[in-house]
Each structure stands twice: as C-alpha cells, then as structure tokens.
C-alpha cells in the first residue's frame, strides 16, 4: 500500500483539513513532526499513506487496549454489519442486552444496569442526570484537574479553566476540590450533594495517582453524607492500569461507573454508564427519561462484547501490568539522567506519564519521538506531561524500541536546551 497517495494528494488533504476542520491542529501536527496522513493500522502499528510504519504509544488515547483492528473484534463487527448495523428502536435489541449483561459480570460489586451512549462524555452526562434524579439533590463535587469530557455537564465537572472559561456560565452546583485531599473532599460534601465524581487516576491532569486509601476515604465520605460516588473509568477502565478497573486497586465499588474508549475494542465508538438496581428505578416510570438515538446500536454492542471477550481471554490487564513495568523500567534511566529537564516518571500499568519541567522541552521530545516514528502526545490538562498509553498487545521488543527512542529524543532536547543557554 506504499504510495497510495501522491505528494499532491497529501498536500491537498492537509489543505482541506486546515480549511474545513481545524487550521490550528494542522499547525500543531506539523510542529510535533506528524506531517503525514494515516492510512491503516494493525496491533500497535500505524501506517501512513506512504507506507511508513509508526509505533502507537498514544493509543487513542486509551482506546486501543486490544490494539488496532483486533481480528476477533473486526470479525464480530463485520458479521453484525451484514445483519443489522442500527436498531429499529422498537423491537428488542439482543446485543444491547448481551453487552449489558456482560458488563454486569465484569464490573465490581452490584453494578448491574447499563445505559449505552456513543462516547465517554455522553456517559458522564447520563451519570450526572440519574444521580440528581435518584437523590433529589442539586449539587456535585469533583476535582481540580479532573477531566470528564467537553459537553456542558461533563465540562462543568471537569477541572481545568482553559477549557471551562470560554463557555461560562456552565451548569451551576459544581464544586471543585484538590484531587487526593480527603479532608477537602469531606468539607465539600454535604446534604445537598447528589454525587462525587472523580477518576481513580487523573489521566488528562498528567497521570496523577492519589495517595493510598484515598478512594476508600471518598467512598466513606459519600456514604456518611448519603451522596453517590461516580467513578469515571473511561480512560482507566478495561485493563489499562493492570486491573480490569482501576478502582479494584483499593476494592472500592462506586454507585455509578462511566465507561468508554476501550469499550469499543478500538473499532466502534461507544460509551456507557452502569449503576446499581436501586438507582435504575428512575427508568421504571418512564423508560425514555434518558435516551440516545444511536446509543446501544447492535454494531457498537457487538464490538463491545467482542472487546470484553478479548480483554478477558487474552488477559490484557495482566499484559498491561507486565509491559507497563517493562516500560517504566526502561524509561527510568533516562529520567534519572536528566533531572534538570524531567520532574518525575509515574504511572500504573500502561497509563504512564513523564513530567518535564518545561512544556517546550516536552514538545521537543514529542517531535524527537516523531522523527523515529513513535506516536506520543501530552496530556490535555497538563502540557508538561508526555503520556505513554500503548496497546496491551505491544511486544517486549517494541517496548524496548520506545525506551531507546525516548533516550535519544531526550538527549537531543537536552543538547538543544544547552545550545540555547
């Protein structure tokens, strides 16, 4: 497939993207060294229209835990495409029921009832709505630096001003407290709090892992106040951190869990929120109190079912833990060799961040990785942090390639910084 587009056609694609989609993104992509058009992908590899191979260490981010185009997931989707891609919305949809039943099996505790949407942000919107409806309370507590999506409700819960300010006033009733600070959480949660919403690990804030016991403390605070606990496992869930769900690290069960990203198996967009049966009583009187035209469609649910099957049968959480430990160990010597440039290496499983002292240096390293055809990017809420979220199917040899490329990119950045100094 090499050379499937001419240089003129590639230039035209960039021009059309700049004119009709996002000119600033084209500028940023060129700055980071990604002046190419993607064409196909397999496993942990992406190929551009000129046939060049890239190792995907961004992974969606967080979408491709099973890799690109996993054959079992592709086969399930192709089969459903030949049968019925979308639902009539009146006859019962078997695959929606099967996917919901499967999620009830794999999620912790008594999470049993699922609503399917099309994205993680949509899942958060639904979770917030049913929390209000179930409790009859108007307020929410979330965390500074948290990221839950960019729709109005999800953005109201998210905690970075650069995304919030242009759209204010947002939804009222949201209080933001420091992540990892149980006492600040306790002070904020009261009898008007419908729910606390947080990520077990803050992903877009820069892969921030809370102190041990924090999730258990928040669970207890919610119970004392009669508030619900919503855990956003959109990026951390389904194997990414070395467990099926990150909350299992502290054996914490939320009242509502939001899912997305990896749930579609890297093939179909899908989001979901799952809750306990008492909370689901809000749907009893009116099953259409919350709905989605395309949510729970047969095509996406077949992808979700196949993804859950692959994640369990191929033990991707364990693979993520193993490859993540290898990647952390391989990155650490470079991190320790450049304390003037790098603050910290942190992560769990294949959710890993490297925090630079300056975002410009991080940008140089991303560009340096791009020259070696390694795909990486910074986290949305902290541009100083370079994230690594490759598929769990990445091989040991590919991980070694990443570590070598990172060492070279950091060394080149260090030389450039010294030259400017």
Please explain how this structure is put together:
The strands form 3 sheets. Strands 4-10-9-8-7-5-6 form a 7-stranded mixed β-sheet, with helices on both faces. With 421 residues, the chain is of the alpha/beta class. It is built from 15 helices and 15 strands. The radius of gyration is 22 Å and the shape is globular. The longest helix is centred in the C-terminal third of the chain and has 25 residues.
Descriptive labels:
single chain; 421 residues; Aspartate Aminotransferase, domain 2; seven-stranded mixed beta sheet; 42% helix
Describe what is shown at a glance.
By secondary structure, this protein is of the alpha/beta class. 42% of the residues lie in helices and 18% in strands.
The shape, in one word, is globular
Q: Segments where pLDDT lies below 50 for 5+ residues?
A: none
Proportion in β-strands? 15-25%
- Rg calc: 22 Å
Q: Roughly what is the average pLDDT, rounded to an integer?
A: 95
**Which assembly state applies to the chains in this document?**
single chain
Biggest β-sheet description: 7 strands, mixed
Q: Would you list the SSEs in sequence order as H and E? A: HHEEEHHHEHEHHEHEHEEEHHHEEHEEEH
DSSP strand tally = 15
CATH class descriptor name of the largest domain:
Alpha Beta
Order of strands side by side in the largest beta sheet?
4-10-9-8-7-5-6
CATH superfamily of the largest domain: Type I PLP-dependent aspartate aminotransferase-like (Major domain)
Query: Helix amount, in percent?
Result: 40-55%
Distance between the termini: 45 Å
Integer count of domains: 2
């Amino acid at each position: 497939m090499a050379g499937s587009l001419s240089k003129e056609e590639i230039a035209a694609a960039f021009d059309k993207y700049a004119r009709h989609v996002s000119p600033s993104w084209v500028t940023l992509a060129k700055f980071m060294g990604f002046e190419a058009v993607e064409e196909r992908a397999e496993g942990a590899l992406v190929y551009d229209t000129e046939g060049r191979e890239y190792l995907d260490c961004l992974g969606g981010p967080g979408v491709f835990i099973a890799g690109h185009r996993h054959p079992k997931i592709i086969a399930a989707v192709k089969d459903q495409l030949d049968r019925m891609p979308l639902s009539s919305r009146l006859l019962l949809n078997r695959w929606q029921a099967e996917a919901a039943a499967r999620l009830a099996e794999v999620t912790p505790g008594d999470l049993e009832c699922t609503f399917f949407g099309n994205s993680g942000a949509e899942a958060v919107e639904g979770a917030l709505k049913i929390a209000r409806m179930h409790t009859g309370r108007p307020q929410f507590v979330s965390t500074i630096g948290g990221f839950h999506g960019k729709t109005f409700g999800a953005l109201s819960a998210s905690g970075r001003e650069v995304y919030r300010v242009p759209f204010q006033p947002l939804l009222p009733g949201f209080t933001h407290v420091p992540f990892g600070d149980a006492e600040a959480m306790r002070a904020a949660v009261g009898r008007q709090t419908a729910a606390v919403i947080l990520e077990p690990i803050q992903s877009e804030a820069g892969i921030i892992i809370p102190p041990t016991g924090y999730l258990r403390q928040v669970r207890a605070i919610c119970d004392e106040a009669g508030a619900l606990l919503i855990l956003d496992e959109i990026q951390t869930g389904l194997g990414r951190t070395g467990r099926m769900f990150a909350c299992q690290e502290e054996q914490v069960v939320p009242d509502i869990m939001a899912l997305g990203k990896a749930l579609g198996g890297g093939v179909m967009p899908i989001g979901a929120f799952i809750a306990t049966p008492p909370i689901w009583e809000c749907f009893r009187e009116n099953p259409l109190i919350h709905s989605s035209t395309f949510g729970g469609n047969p095509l996406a649910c077949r992808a979700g079912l196949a993804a859950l099957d692959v994640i369990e049968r191929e033990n991707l959480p364990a693979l993520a833990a193993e490859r993540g430990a290898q990647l952390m160990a391989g990155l650490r010597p470079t991190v320790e060799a450049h304390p003037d440039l790098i603050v910290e290496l942190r992560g769990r499983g294949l959710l890993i961040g490297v925090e630079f002292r300056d975002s410009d240096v991080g940008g140089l390293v991303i560009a340096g990785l791009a020259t070696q055809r390694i795909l990486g990017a910074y986290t949305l809420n902290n541009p100083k942090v370079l994230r690594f979220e490759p598929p769990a199917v990445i091989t040991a040899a590919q991980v070694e390639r990443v570590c070598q490329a990172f060492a070279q990119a950091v060394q080149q950045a260090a030389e450039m910084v010294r030259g400017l100094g």
